[in-house]
Amino acid sequence: MTETGSKSNPSGGASGSWSEWAAGHADESPVGVGSVVRERFVLEQVIGSGGMGIVFRARDLRRDEAQDRHPHVAIKFLAPEFKRHPDALRALQREARKAQRLAHPNIGSVYDFDRDGSNVYLVMELLEGQPLSDLVKAHAGTGLPRGQALHVVEEAAIALAHAHSKGVIHSDFKPSNVFMTNAGEAKVIDFGIARAARSGAAGGGDVTQTVFDAAKLGAATLAYASPEQLLGVGDPDPRDDIYSLAVVAYELLAGRHPFNRRSALEAQLAEMRVEPVPGLGDAPNAVLRSALAFRRELRPATVNDFVLGLGLQPVVRSLATAPPGLDAASAKTLVAQALPLETSATLLGARLGGEVGARRPGPLRWLLAGLAIAGLAGGGWFAYSVVQQREQEQRAERERFEAERRAAEAKAEQERIAREKAEAERRAAEERIDAEREARATAERDRLLAEAQAERERAARERAEKERVLAAVKRAEKSGDQQQKGGDRSGSGAGSTAGGGKDSSSRAGAKAGTVYRWQDDNGEVHYGKDVPPEYAGRAVPIVSSE
Predict the structure, then answer these.
(1) How confident is the model over 166-216, as pLDDT tens digits?
(2) What residue spans define the domains of the chain?
(3) 410 in helix, strand or coil?
């Protein structure tokens, strides 16, 4: 089992945001087996890898819910190199959108192009079988059987012609991008890295040119790329794909690369020549040499010219509308039915007329011719009806898938908004708690500062009171000494009183040598050693001199 095609339309942002997205996700880790992408795709197995990235077999949970018989898809995650090239991501988005429109039985279907976190991926049809590169390796030196090789070339050519008719150039056609299903059908894959030709380059309408060059990011394989692709000169051209198709055709038929796996530029510098494929014939070998020319203008102008030169059926454009799912035999039947009806009817009528002309009268000949024309017209209309029905079914499938994708995106957006709202509420609650905590801390700090200030003021008051008391004591002592001296003088001149010359009444209840504080009847505070008798009960010792 291996991978398939690609689709478009990254969700989660406009393409203009690829630069910011790439800068923010360039170093994030890739996904692996067991990862769930977009809550929808469960990665079950690695089924391929290459320069573009890695491919997983994945189970689509939406299809499981719908009980789809085919719930598996292939998901290709782009290599980290693309995250450093936002222009390449934008171009791949546009090209994947084009590839989504390439509905064809020989092109792998593309469902989506999206991103999940750091991972950009393509959702594709899961194919059962093996890549053509495995067959090429298994038949190296001998080549595939001639009929099988031409069958693969024919179906790959039909796919490329269909893409060219839509203005899309594959730009990386090689054996690993051709998948051989178990039913024997060839499907071209990886149109997700294709580039659109300029308007009119492939006979198409108005097609936007893509600036992405696969060769510049290593997506183009050197051994199969044209010289113009390797040099990056000129506009993308169908003849680039014709060169790559011719290399693959030569490898399938001859069992070896036409230039020993050297790039076109190396082969051109070495002046290498294409050796004819044994047993192929002069005309087919000449067409192969022409398609492998190093100059674009020397190659066949269209894929149809190339396959006609190989002797294969013409690549008619009407087959480009054939629905996917038809087997090879049915596809070829539609090719025959899709030939211009008037031409086929004329040829068949002429043939029938020639056969019966010698034996039937004229009117019968014209009747048979008319019946032949009517039969061809009915067959063509039936084929056209089948094609239209299949296209409508595929369109409905794409619309259903797109509707499911949009619903999933809407759900994811709602969940994202809910998460952001919850996160905002959580941050607001935390900020409110922090503000309350800060307010409490501020109030506590202010209280402590106020208490400290009050303590400092109380201490200052005590110091001032003590200083005032000491000053009062000194004044009282000084006043007492002066009174003592006056009393001594009075006693010695007039004689001492009974008891030795001291006024005992002025010292009633007071200890000698102690300083007291008392308050008189007028509320005035006094300090001194001698307390008047009437205030002895109020005196409070302050300083003791003992």
Answers:
(1) 888 888 899 999 999 999 999 999 875 645 333 333 334 333 344 444 444
(2) 1-127, 129-320, 330-436, 509-546
(3) helix
Paired with 518 in beta bridges are: 526
- Enumerate the H helices of 272-340 as residue ranges: 282-291, 303-309, 328-337
Answer whether residue 271 shows pLDDT above 90. Answer: yes
Domain 1-127: homologous superfamily in CATH = Phosphorylase Kinase; domain 1 (3.30.200.20)
CA 115 to chain centre: 4
Q: Rounded to an integer, what distance in angstroms lies between the CA atom of residue 172 and that of residue 229?
A: 9
Q: Are 191 and 163 in contact (CB under 8 A)?
A: yes
User: Does 411 score more than 80 pLDDT?
Assistant: yes
Please state, in angstroms and rounded to a whole number, the distance separating the CA atoms of residues 88 and 111: 20
DSSP letters spanning 39-63: TTEEEEEEEEE-SSEEEEEEEEHHH
Question: In degrees rounded to 5, what are phi and psi of residue 387?
Answer: -60, -45
Q: Structure tokens of 35?
A: 């990862």
Mean pLDDT of the chain: 76
Pair 224, 174: CB distance under 8 Å = yes
Q: What is the CA 275 to chain-centroid distance, rounded?
A: 47
Q: Give burial (CB, 10 Å; 0-12/13-18/19+) of 134.
A: middle
Pairing of strands 36-37, 525-528: unpaired
* CATH assignment of 129-320, among 3.40.50.720, 1.10.760.10, 1.10.510.10, 1.20.1260.10: 1.10.510.10
Determine contact, residues 143/149, Cβ cutoff 8 Å.
yes
Q: Which two tokens stand for residue 220?
A: 């183009």
What positions carry a catalytic annotation? 172
